[in-house]
Amino acid sequence: MAAIVSALLIGALFGFGLAVSEMIDPARVIGFLDVAGRWDPTLLFVMGGALAVTLPGFPLILRRARPLLAEFFAMPTQSRLDGSLITGATIFGIGWGIAGFCPGPALAALASGSPGVAVFVVAMIAGQWAGSLLEQRP
Amino acid sequence: MAEPNIIGGLLGGALIGLASALLLLLNGRIAGISGILGGVIKSNVPGERSWRVAFILGLVGGAALDAFMRGGLPLRMQPAGPMLILAGLLVGFGTRLGSGCTSGHGVCGLARRSPRSLVATMIFMIVAALTVFLTRNFF
């Protein structure tokens, strides 16, 4: 139960950060990606602010034997640079460039009540579902 | 150059980083939003689903709090209709196949010094910038 409450509050902090940084605004994100046009460096400051915490913080946390509210650290196990990683990142990049939405900001932007955001999120979930079908094949 | 939001960017970014560090410290999980969402869809272990749903509800609630404080969210949608749907499908499919998005690979993966995340982050940044260049100039 404590882990669920903590996930809720941490999710809220994350969502608040996405809104404060204006990363939930697709125009800001497209502006960052538009390097040949009216470039908007805001996303760079967001990445910098986040990495200023996580780059030193993660190694310190991972020195612990276990997390505070769980049995173990559930870390990614894959280490190979395979075709799925490269193809997946490319396909994601195309979608991100078209809409200016990646998964976190799109979900947080549901708070706006905008029908367009809901349309995007439903399509994103359908895309994830299609991807998971591909994964299950041997 | 467009007017950047330096203060909001740094502050919001630090909050995102803090949230990612806290999720690791308390729950032992990587704050990759596509992965958290994917686990809601795929997982059929009840304990595995509830914290993910809680996190996503929090995500929406946190943005709602900012909307309340500033009287609305800054949201300028780019494409509409079929292009928006296509983009959503690509983002969902691509993050699933590539095991992560801007948060999982970008914020957390780089902090873990993961070579996979570094490669993925460079690829999706470059491809997205190329996509914007093409849509701005040729479509």
What does this structure look like?
The complex is a heterodimer of chains A (138) and B (139). Chain A is mainly α. Chain A is 67% helix and 0% strand. Chain A has one domain (2-136). Chain A has helices spanning 2-20, 26-33, 42-62, 83-99, 103-108, 115-136. Chain A is globular. Chain B is mostly helical. Chain B has a domain at 78-139. The mean pLDDT of chain B is 93.
List the helices and strands and how they pair.
The complex is a heterodimer of chains A (138) and B (139).
Chain A: H1 2-20, H2 26-33, H3 42-62, H4 83-99, H5 103-108, H6 115-136
Chain B: H1 6-27, H2 33-42, H3 46-70, H4 81-97, H5 102-111, H6 115-138
Helix pairs in contact in B: 2-3, 5-6
**What kind of assembly state do the chains in view correspond to?**
heterodimer
**Computed CA radius of gyration of chain A, to the nearest angstrom:** 17 Å
Number of helices of chain B: 6
Greatest interface by residues involved: A-B, 118 and 109 residues
Quick one: overall form of chain A? globular
Label this structure with key terms:
heterodimer; A: 138 residues; mainly alpha; globular; B: 139 residues; 78% helix
Short note summarizing the structure:
The complex is a heterodimer of chains A (138) and B (139). With 138 residues, chain A is mainly α.
